[in-house]
């Protein structure tokens, strides 16, 4: 049973670590927090491996037969069970804490009445009223991940359509003005 739990945690952890984004309990977690959750979910397998290796070391002697090793491993498996359960429960507990302490998804924004057909990169021309994540990142001179982190932390108001984000110039300018007012 623990082996199935380890496998399930491992694959979810790899997914969160590689993708940098995970949705748990109707919360979309992105960036470093998602990667930390992924790392935590992967961690039990190496921890149990190291713990098992350390526990087996005192029994390793020359001339052990396969039957001896089987008997030793069966005895150690029962002795290791409380430690394995502690590792799994700690990992799950930390993951739950990180999920529920994450900022809420941004609320849906008000409908935007101005629609821009702008698709060219911003090179000194007109700035569109509604921008994609990439356009907003260029406008703010930040990475797309940093803009997404601003959205997830509710510092920047945006609307999500499927997997795509739309951010109004008005909201970007408001966020910049609020940042300037906070510094003053």
Domain tally? 2
End-to-end gap: 58 Å
The largest β sheet comes out as: 3 strands, antiparallel
CA radius of gyration: 25 Å
Beta strand count:
5
Task: Give the proportion of residues in helices.
Answer: 55-70%
The side-by-side strand order for the widest beta sheet comes to 3-5-4
Low-confidence stretches: 106-121
Mean pLDDT: 80
Strand content: 5-15%
Q: If helices are DSSP runs of H or I spanning 4 or more residues, what is the number of helices?
A: 7
Q: What does this protein look like?
A:
The chain has 184 residues and is mainly alpha-helical. It folds into two domains: 2-100, no CATH class; 105-184, no CATH class. 59% of the residues lie in helices and 10% in strands. It contains seven helices and five strands. The chain has helices at residues 2-19, 32-42, 44-56, 66-100, 133-140, 144-152, 169-183; strands spanning 21-24, 27-30, 130-131, 159-161, 164-168. Strands 3-5-4 form a three-stranded antiparallel beta sheet. The protein has a two-stranded antiparallel sheet with strand order 1-2. Residues 106-121 have low confidence and may be disordered.
Task: Tag the structure with descriptive keywords.
two-stranded antiparallel ribbon; 184 residues; 3-stranded antiparallel sheet; mainly alpha
Short description:
The chain has 184 residues and is mainly α.
Task: List the topology elements.
Layout: H1 2-19, E1 21-24, E2 27-30, H2 32-42, H3 44-56, H4 66-100, E3 130-131, H5 133-140, H6 144-152, E4 159-161, E5 164-168, H7 169-183
Antiparallel strand pairs: 1-2, 3-5, 4-5
